[in-house]
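Hey,
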Amino acid sequence: MQGASTEEIIKIVNKCPTNALTYKWNKDIEKEDGMAKASPEYEQKTEIKIMEDGPLIIRGNFKIIGTDGKEMKQMKVASICRCGQSGNKPFCDGTHKKTGVKN
């Protein structure tokens, strides 16, 4: 990605289904309700994608609240386990691939 434009980098990072790639803005960030909000041209609506035989991928501005009512993580992308086998619940750790779970 060296030498890539900002738009190209954002597109590549946003395609990452496991949140292994992330980016941070150097400028034009304003705080809104405790969430970093980028300039309008880079705003992303929250979406949930169901991966075939895999996790739920959530993208956008959101927070995850635990069973105790406290915020667990504030993120832009999260992979949520659907198979029930993850050792890092509620997040996917790829165990579904090892166990062959289909859902």
